[in-house]
Amino acid sequence: MELGIGTMASGWKTRYLNLEETTRATMYRPTVAEIDLTAIRDNLRAIRAFTPLKTQVIGVVKADAYGHGAARIAAVLEQEQVRLLAVATPDEAVELRENGITAELLVLGNSPADFVPYAVTNNVALTTVNQATTMMYAAAAGTHTVRLHYKVDTGMGRAGVLADNATKQILYSAAVPRVSIVGLYSHFACAGSDPEFTALQTARFAAVVRELRAGGLQPAMVHLANSAGMFTSPGVMLDGVRPGILLYGCPPVPAPTCPVRPVLSLRTKLEMVKELPAGHGIGYGRTFITDRPTHMALIPIGYADGYLRGLSNKAHVILRGRFAPVVGRVSMDVCALDVTDIPAAMPGDRVTLIGEQDGCSITADELAELMGTISYEVLTGISKRVPRVYIDRSP
Q: According to the UniProt entry, which residues carry N6-(pyridoxal phosphate)lysine (predicted)?
């Protein structure tokens, strides 16, 4: 059943948000990513129910909210009283402000000096990783005070002050004029696969926190646990947790105590159906040769949309309650299906590449496994050419 304005489904009113824009973007091409905003709300509530009452959920909306559309997702999280949103880059922070998001923002990555004036006047906290960065931010803040989260490297080996040297540097930074250290955090390297090293990172971080508090620094937001760490190290859900992929319904580790569901579905429609004889190649390189008279169908999606070549001759789609194999190489703009065993298939039929349809399901994790990667890459790789259609099943 197609859902649209005023359509009733399971007792909920379903509506497409920003319908004019959605219609304009999709009227000539049926390939869309459907974003279920009710699932975001439900996932957030499940995460909150799992975390201690004192622990804030930091809404991670970097990388365009993992491909779901940062402005829309941030607006829903703001409605649900999420007080801190995390982005990766200054540009991502500006995008949210320009789209009316007023919640406090934290930039997890590096920020240049010329962004600091914007940050201090727009409630954007920055990440600092050493004394030099802290001094640069202070100098760029002018007469304002720049709010900082200090990142500690407890074993990830990327940005951050090394844990062994952290206390002295952070206390020194806290004394710098026009600087306010409001947060302290680190990041797990392998929370889902190496409990011993994760415990070591936790111990290193806890030691830094103790030493800083003994030195008189009391950062308001101490945060360590990511999506995996929430389940493998539940004792480190401190002042805040940073559920990224979990919020979007793809737990990186088994999470039966925190039921979430996927937010994004990737859909299109059959463009054409064509009969090919046995022995006929399909696609570039003729990597698939028909071994029988074959009904080949084209769908208007390809690697320029984020449906990648690594899925060639491996993936399936859902069509009329059946799984149809992707055959031949995925091209830039189209890919081919073998619909011989679905004789009723015809142009205009709905096709699901990620999501549920007619009792069948394909997940981003399943596509990731076919390509030897992770669901994060599958979701963030869906390109801007694919319009996001926002569906809200709120009462």
A: 62
- More confident position, 12 or 351: 351
**Structural domain that includes position 291:** 7-19+263-392
User: Which residues participate in the annotated binding site?
Assistant: 158, 332
Given 168, 274, 284, 384, which residue is catalytic?
284
**65 φ, ψ (degrees, to nearest 5):** 55, 50
Domain-located, residue 213: yes
181 and 46 together in one domain: yes
Say which CATH number the domain at 168 has.
Answer: 3.20.20.10
Q: Which residues are annotated as a binding site for substrate?
A: 158, 332
Strands 264-269, 350-357: pairing kind: antiparallel
The residue type found at 225 is A
pLDDT at residue 27, rounded to an integer: 63
CB 78: neighbour CB atoms within 10 A? 17
In the residue annotation, 62 being an active-site residue is answered as: yes
Count CB neighbours of 193 within 10 A: 12
Catalytic residue, from 62, 66, 248, 307: name it. 62
Strand 272-276 vs strand 294-299: parallel, antiparallel, or unpaired?
A: antiparallel
3-state secondary structure string across 286-299: HCEECCCCEEEEEE
Q: Is the Cβ–Cβ distance between 346 and 273 less than 8 Å?
A: yes
CB neighbour list of residue 94: distance below 8 Å, 6 or more residues apart: 118
The last residue of a domain, from among 187, 213, 242: 242
What's the pLDDT at 395? 67
Tell me what pLDDT residue 280 has.
Answer: 98
